[in-house]
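Researcher: Next sequence.
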Amino acid sequence: MALIAGSPREAEDILARLEAQAVRRETASPNGAVAWRAWGSGPPVLLLHGSHGSWSHWARNIEALATWRTVLAPDLPGFGESAVPPRPDDAASFGEELARGLAEIAGPRANLDVVGFSTGALMGAHLTAAGPALVRRLILVDAGGLGSEVGTYQSFGIRGLTGEALREAHRGNLASMMIHDPAQVDELALLIQARNAPLTRIYARPLVLPDRLLEVLSRILVPLDLIWGEHDALHADPARHLEILRTIDPDCTLHVIPGAGHWAMYEGADAFNMVLRELLLSPPRTRG
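Model: Next structure:
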């Protein structure tokens, strides 16, 4: 069952437990280091978070995966505890840093499964382009950059806010962009947002939109699969995104998480974890 925090203390305890269970590593980068965390044992799977995020975007998925896989979750360059990449206005630079670090951690021919959420989908594609032997399959979760229109949303600024005003701004951003059902904006979601937002040093939108992901996907040959929130406010119409991706990989599959918004692996964690398990248990297709 998905982790649920009914109080700020419970939310703190959940993240503290996940931190305590993780093995933390750093890999060298020209501007500092990239922070990585690992849980569990078994064949590795790489999780790449979205914008304004960190490894904790996967808080409701790590323990389920770690029962049978080694879960690797970095803070993307320029987010969380990781240094900004050498060329922060070039998405390829993020992929190069991830490829360098992953080769050090998992070996230069790791051939593992990569799951990329939102901006992390773009970074996963560039990782694949930079290190083709590192990746055998790419699973895209509510990804932008596919040439489709971005939905309308309200953004609440947090600069200068404190206390309850800051908390309500975080709640507003989660409800507007990330989570479909406002009742699902729980204490854990608020804590993750509150911790990650101030550590974001990258403006991801121009790296992704309108079709930057589509362009790099056309240059790589790994099989593609989609997991999408039914009510993603940013990238609506999952079937339309499948149609777009099948111009690149005709056998691409789509798996919709009922009732979930953009942050599908959080809001619909139980369903998401089941879908991801089924995908990871199936052998990756071969693309010509």
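Model: The chain has a mean pLDDT of 96. DSSP finds eleven helices and eight strands in the chain.
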